[in-house]
């Protein structure tokens, strides 16, 4: 019998929530919030984005996205550039410092995630490894739909 998205969600949500809490509680505190880090990760993945696209990807309102961008810009982690397709528009991109900081935070959090995964036996770890491309593909489709691509 094939599980429905709702059935899978009911089992996956508590595990993901608990992992999320442990993962972020064990990492060094930073002046970058989790939401701002997510914005930076989206900029790394998608390249320069309009603030409206960032808001869509993050499921937040434009003013919230703008405030987050302002904070990241004040830290020198992102910069605004003219949109070449629409001279009136502005896109946000990662700076070199932003890429460096994203790598540093990523390395630290990779270590924390490895600590959580270290309790699994090799067979369990392999199953997690095999599942990652499925989650990545799902997020790609989800992001594309949120950005208005089909």
UniProtKB/TrEMBL annotation:
<dbReference type="InterPro" id="IPR036390">
    <property type="entry name" value="WH_DNA-bd_sf"/>
</dbReference>
<dbReference type="InterPro" id="IPR052526">
    <property type="entry name" value="HTH-type_Bedaq_tolerance"/>
</dbReference>
<keyword id="KW-0804">Transcription</keyword>
<dbReference type="InterPro" id="IPR036388">
    <property type="entry name" value="WH-like_DNA-bd_sf"/>
</dbReference>
<keyword id="KW-0238">DNA-binding</keyword>
<dbReference type="Pfam" id="PF01047">
    <property type="entry name" value="MarR"/>
</dbReference>
<keyword id="KW-0805">Transcription regulation</keyword>
<dbReference type="GO" id="GO:0003677">
    <property type="term" value="F:DNA binding"/>
</dbReference>
<dbReference type="InterPro" id="IPR023187">
    <property type="entry name" value="Tscrpt_reg_MarR-type_CS"/>
</dbReference>
<dbReference type="InterPro" id="IPR000835">
    <property type="entry name" value="HTH_MarR-typ"/>
</dbReference>
<feature type="domain" description="HTH marR-type">
    <location>
        <begin position="1"/>
        <end position="137"/>
    </location>
</feature>
<protein>
    <submittedName>
        <fullName>Transcriptional regulator, MarR-family</fullName>
    </submittedName>
</protein>
<dbReference type="GO" id="GO:0003700">
    <property type="term" value="F:DNA-binding transcription factor activity"/>
</dbReference>
